[in-house]
Amino acid sequence: MASMMQPQIILLKEGTDTSQGKAQLLSNINAVTAVGDVVRTTLGPRGMDKLIHDDKGSVTISNDGATIMKLLDIVHPAAKILVDIAKSQDSEVGDGTTTVVLLAAEFLKEAKPFVEDGVHSQNLIRSYRTASTLAIEKVKELAVSIEGKSVEEKKGLLAKCAATTLSSKLIGGEKEFFATMVVDAVMAIGDDDRLNLIGIKKVPGGNMRDSFLVDGVAFKKTFSYAGFEQQPKKFLNPKILLLNIELELKSEKENAEIRLSDPSQYQSIVDAEWNIIYDKLDKCVESGAKVVLSRLAIGDLATQYFADRDIFCAGRVAEGDLNRVAAAAGGTVQTSVNNIIPEVLGTCEIFEEKQVGGERFNIFSGCPSGRTATIVLRGGADQFIEEAERSLHDAIMIVRRAVKNSTVVPGGGAIDMEISKYLRQHSRTIAGKSQLFINSYAKALEVIPRQLCDNAGFDATDVLNKLRQKHAMQSGEGASYGVDINTGGIADSFANFVWEPAVVKINAINAATEAACLILSVDETVKNPKSESAQGDAAGAMGRGRGGGRGRGMRRR
Ligand code: ADP
Ligand code: MG
């Protein structure tokens, strides 16, 4: 009885769940490995796609690591870190998202036997960090610059990088076609940082080869009123007026309260309303613009008015599209029609409304600043076009990266094998346990070529042995050998133009190592009961209440 009465030290709230130590670390490693296993099969040109069906019933088919990780809805706290690195890889470089998850998972998998044997994780972390620094230095050393080439040559090289990215995607079959398109689009926006200057429009139907690039802006025809059909649908060198105002007959009684003493005054108010709108329309016409676009509605009155004066108009243009027209055609979006000076009008060589599949499109091409491009994507199912858009996004990011820091490394696992060899060699010069850890890190890097083989149905052991042998050659001529996805053997990735920008690898190695070290440094997870559902909270409160009652009862006894 006495022992029951002893006061308990309560450190954490009732219901708090903690687990700690080696067991916790191992459980985290297992969770991360499980996530790695999910995305594993999507790597490379022969990688499979994932169909993700969420609770709202929408279906996504994707091969993109970041997209899959986002949609997986992972609840394990440690495994969530992988979602974050995939996302950051996506926003930093745009490609290599599967690679980064796979590397992180493999680093931890290699660390697991050491943790089981009682190695302190700080030792592992230190060695992993050293290995990562060495690896990154080596990537930089091996990277080949594509600087100093002529524009045409450079375009060709960039298209190779884009093709490598696209080869692992659903649209990989048409990679050359899309790679050229992506390079042209990126070249069009120059070194502007605003990626949204490249528009991607999706039009279901047709063949993917029907996709095309507009050297300007294209957007779907907006909602239009009667009178629209009488407007001309094609202009050469038109002046373009961009507005952010409504051109509609507005009943002013909604803006102000008006008291009338004489019914005849009512007419004057109606007249005033008409005068306001006609005044606005006159000013638009006087500006000399032949194309009027507005972010807000352009009503039936205005549509007819413009039609009578051979002017084209479109209301409710999406903001992004309007801004892209402004950037391309050189105009400024106006919030008032007073004082429209010629400088605020844009222009382009050809404006046209065209039929694309089942849709009408407004197309502005030959824009003076040329700083924008639009890719109109065609293809069968919705999911297909969505995935095509994501793939193009990856390719666009890669080409932009390659334009900015124009160094590339051989892909297909070649660079990974080369760093792995380098680290193994390096580890032999180190005395102590660290040698084993760096060796494991080196082994983990081989996951990329091994997985490329596995996914293609090749004998991974066989191919890897060949690669190891090639890379071990003293002369260094085997350094760019990677998996040959077509024959199941090995081939010179450089010669085959399987190129990746060096930043993709550098960022992937860096992020994956950081994530692995982060997980290795966690030895306790504390789960706060508050994070559970509201119902759980209520139950907890009731439990506490009952506990109080029991306490009183005990004292009485
Ligand atoms: P991630 O999301 O990491 O970019 P991918 O599925 O795009 O994953 O696969 C990228 C890997 O596939 C890279 O290691 C790249 O070198 C390799 N790869 C791409 N094209 C080829 C090819 N034609 N032959 C061999 N390997 C390739
Ligand atoms: Mg990729």
Automatic annotation (TrEMBL):
It is found in: Cytoplasm. Residues 529-557 are annotated as: Disordered. Pfam families: Cpn60_TCP1. InterPro entries: Chap_CCT_eta (IPR012720), Chaperone_TCP-1 (IPR017998), Chaperonin_TCP-1_CS (IPR002194), Cpn60/GroEL/TCP-1 (IPR002423), GroEL-like_apical_dom_sf (IPR027409), GROEL-like_equatorial_sf (IPR027413), TCP-1-like_intermed_sf (IPR027410), TCP-1_chaperonin (IPR053374). One of its GO terms (cellular component) is chaperonin-containing T-complex. Keywords: ATP-binding, Chaperone, Cytoplasm, Nucleotide-binding. CDD domains: TCP1_eta. Residues 547-557 have a biased composition (Basic residues). Signal peptide: none annotated. GO terms for molecular function: ATP binding; ATP hydrolysis activity; ATP-dependent protein folding chaperone; unfolded protein binding. It comes from the Eukaryota. Heterooligomeric complex that forms two stacked rings. Belongs to the TCP-1 chaperonin family. Molecular chaperone; assists the folding of proteins upon ATP hydrolysis. Known to play a role, in vitro, in the folding of actin and tubulin. This is T-complex protein 1 subunit eta. The lineage of its organism: Eukaryota, Viridiplantae, Streptophyta, Embryophyta, Tracheophyta.
